[in-house]
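Review form for a predicted model. The reviewer records the input and the model, then writes brief findings.
Reviewer: anonymous (R2)
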Amino acid sequence: NCVFRSLNKMNFITRLSALCLRKSKMQQRHQSSRRPAVPLGSRILTDPCKVFEHNMWDHMQWSQEEEESAKEKASENSLVKVQWEDQEILPETRREELKIEERSSEHRKLNSTNRFSQKNEMFQEGEKYWKKNYGGGSTSVQGYVCNKNQAKSLTDNPLGENCGEELGLEQLESFPGSDATHRILEVGCGAGNSVFPILKVLCNTPGTFLYCCDFASGAVELVKSHSSYNSAWCSAFVHDVCDDALPYPFPDEILDVILLVFVLSTIHPDRMQGVVNRLAKLLKPGGMLLFRDYGRYDTAQLRFKKGHCLSENFYVRGDGTRVYFFTKDEVWNMFNVAGLTEVQHLVDRRLQVNRKKKVKMQRVWIQSKFQKPLPLSLNNPEETTERHRYR
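Model under review:
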């Protein structure tokens, strides 16, 4: 039964991968009249004279001349770097948002400090909060929910340290999605362009739950206000993935799938490894991380003017947002350091055209699937079956 459950999980992950990335694996990428067996796309340009007949062509192979030209353009627009003192300047609207969020955070910290300084007051506040939000029954501490009959332990240990260890994991109660058998997290959900297609699938897949988070509180509110949003199978929350100390609303090692699509490129290169390491901890053994982001020398990189480069292959847009352009090796190294193994890892090269203006644009993306290794016994179904036989 254990083996069959693992197989069912992998089938679910495969279906979800096809939905969200809408692409699959391809061993060799080239221009050819023969359609690849498992393509990322099936529109192959065989006659250059027909290049403006469609908006996009798949599986484009760059000539040496095209690659050298791209390198030269990237070198030119990287000559003038943004001054160090100007690199942390944000647009005025975003600075005001951060100030409001900072004041709100400080207010919450002050309230928390005052509450924990007086044990009886803490318990009363916890009772009020729980009755208001959950109808009574338990008190929330440090992201975990503990029974009311454990109140004495909480007052003895008001910060809730090692709550799970002291009280026993079997006594921990529900968190959002705790009853689900398959759990998914989308990092950087934005306004929900991927969330709602996924929810359509989840409606027909009992036992599944979707978490989605974004740095922008406004985006999260848009997701929550959508008619398709339902807290029974989805939990949207504000989260800064760069803050290692910020807890997620669920324990580690419970996720089957993490979607990291066009998110990592917005993070400073010095922080990327830490983000990947933290996300890897959220995956259960056998869980999958699905990645898609900008590749080196994509048209978006070559279009930057001088003075927008922050550091090598890292740029700032006009609206203040950042973007990094990856190589295949860089991505592989990050996930490998985080302890994940490659399932799929490729460069998706396409030719995008503007038929009206007769403009050609070389698009480059990195698309990958990385998996958290299973324990040795689960990697060998025969060994697992043999062990169960003697139990």
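Findings: Residues 286 and 374 are 5 Å apart (CA to CA).
Further findings: Residues 21-38, 105-172, 383-391 have pLDDT under 50 and may be disordered.
Recommendation: see findings above.
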